[in-house]
Amino acid sequence: MWFNHFFRESTKAMQKPSIPKGTRDFTPLEMANRNYIFNTIKEVFRLYGFQQIETPAMENLSTLMGKYGEEGDKLLFKILNSGDYLASIDEQELTQRNSSKLTTKISEKGLRYDLTVPFARFVVQNRDKITFPFKRYQIQPVWRADRPQKGRYREFYQCDVDVVGSDSLLNELELIQIVDEVYRRLKINVCLKINNRKILSGIAEIIGQADKIIDITVAIDKMDKIGLEKVNEEIASKGISAVAIDKLQPILCLSGSNADKLNSLKSILAQSEIGLKGVEELEVILGLCERMNVQTRIELDLTLARGLNYYTGAIFEVKALDVEIGSITGGGRYDNLTGVFGMPGVSGVGISFGADRIYDVLNQLDLYPATRSEQTQLLFVCFGQEELNYCLPWLAVLRSKGVNVEVYPEPSKMKKQMSYADDKKIPFVAIVGESEMNQNKIMLKDMKSGMQEMKSMEELIEFMLLK
Prior knowledge:
Distance between the termini: 65 Å
CATH architecture of the largest domain: 2-Layer Sandwich
Shape: globular
């Protein structure tokens, strides 16, 4: 008996811990790469006058529910109430197994699904503290109870930038310019797809299915994933007639330049006021982009719908052209998102950069810079206490100049200390022996070339600051 118990306990101890599917750990090197992405995006956001905020990881479910459509609500992670969360549930309710009804009684909070709805709540709650138009950016994780697969995670970071309190299409231009600048700096070749929810509403109107706009947009937004035939099947399953579906086909398959498509839409949507308004808005945005010489390829895509219900105007999606992966940035105009929180009439527009997908793209294309800002630039090796005492003032001066530097903490063989530098990809090593101390210098070794050179403090500082 005692042996069986011991064996079971030993087996448990040997089992490696794990993390939930759809989540990831990141090593120091991986975090340096991720911070390269975050810092690049932040720098561009600030160039356009955006300021940072943060909101809690969890929100009241009353804030989140009903804002993402039926499919989005299913993907919300709910948090069980503290204590005995079943105390108020009777036996009959448990046996009925009505999960939706039970959830309202045992869970009052959930993890945020995106950053936009919490931002709308923030604007309403802090309306007396902010100045409109309010330009904010936010870089935080979000959670979705989705099925994990390549490029799709349950926990991932979004980098959002939004303007609320302005109807001007200049805001759409600046968001496109931000996309253009971010991906130019990251050296990712992308295509920005654009559409307008007013155009989609107009299409639904002219095929006689205005009341089915949500069903239509949810379906056609899946075109890239499931193809036209499956999209048509899904639309038909929502009770939309075959006649209406036939009318939809040539619209979804429009080809030619952006100008050609817009001209065709003017004829197709001639009897739809809202549809023509969407065409007009896109003409203005595309004209501004041409005027400002935006380099990113922009493509009008009528199958782009962005499944979230709160979009009302221009919608965007960015695809990486050299890697097979879903969209890496998306967003659009939402005219009344704050209205659900008691503050109607506040228009907003924003985009979200998917940091985790961008990270995967940069990994596949190996586009990271050779050195990262948080990487150790210089390692002092340690041969003994006397040498260590000599090195410590050098470390202090170098750090005061902004050089990332460390010292091996204990005397060890040179091979072990050099392996440490190699493993951490530290480009330079400072070697100190009796000769160096007598000359008040150090021997600097370039770990890539193997070259060594004696340097004084002043020479070392000048050299490291140029690297």
